[in-house]
Amino acid sequence: MIDNSTDCLVVIDVQNDFCSGGALEVPAGDEVVPVINGISTAFEHRVLTQDWHPAGHLSFASAHPGKAPFETVELEYGTQVLWPDHCIQGTDGASFHTDLEVTGAELIVRKGFRPRIDSYSAFYENDQSSATGLSGYLKNRGFSRLYLAGLATDYCVAWSALDARREGFEVVLIEDACRAIDLDGSLEAAMGPMDAAGVVRIRTGDL
To answer: What is the pLDDT of residues 99-122, one digit of tens each?
Structure first.
């Protein structure tokens, strides 16, 4: 049962570039929009995250001559998947999906704005030490359980879920309110660590 005194819905990266026709399209990514809109009314408190890269970001394949999207490179903070240019600050691709209900959201967290560090998680950049500030905000507001939805299950949603657990939050993954890229088995690889960390998996019908 949702307890609006301690629960918060965190909607991850439902942006044009991750939806149909976007630069980094998540298969069936658009399908999460009506699902998320449908459950949003059950939550008094909602937070949105927004991928927000400067042009030429180090995670873009275009920043690495001779490299193609979805290849990997080793950077200071570890292995980095190289992505097509996406969610560039101020572009239409970085905007939230037109049909996503954003009215009433209490905070928008922008991530990935540091030029040389990618950021999947809503809580930390991929170096696992540069914080976004979301954890402190949620704790100061008195939230202890987070419901996660959005894009993509196997990257930004999964990393957010694991970091939220590391920060001491209870985490509930709303599976049918998410979609995955599933790059070379990345969805299956993401589910195991989430299960091991105690992330609870539900569907919207369980709410």
So the answer is: 999 999 999 999 999 999 999 999
CA distance 188 to 31: 20
* d(C-alpha 5, C-alpha 93), whole Å: 34
- Catalytic residue numbers read 13, 111, 156
Q: Report the first-to-last Cα separation within the chain, whole angstroms.
A: 7
| CA–CA distance, 109 with 52 (Å, rounded to integer) | 9
Burial class of 30 by CB neighbour count within 10 A (0 to 12, 13 to 18, 19+): buried
**Could you state, in chain order, the average pLDDT of each consecutive group of 10 residues for the chain (207 residues)?**
96 98 96 97 97 98 97 95 97 98 96 96 96 98 98 97 98 98 91 97 95
Helices (H), the chain: 32-40, 134-141, 158-166, 186-196
φ, ψ for residue 167 (rounded to 5)? -85, 0
Peptide bond into 55 cis (omega under 30): no
d(CA 27, CA 158): 17
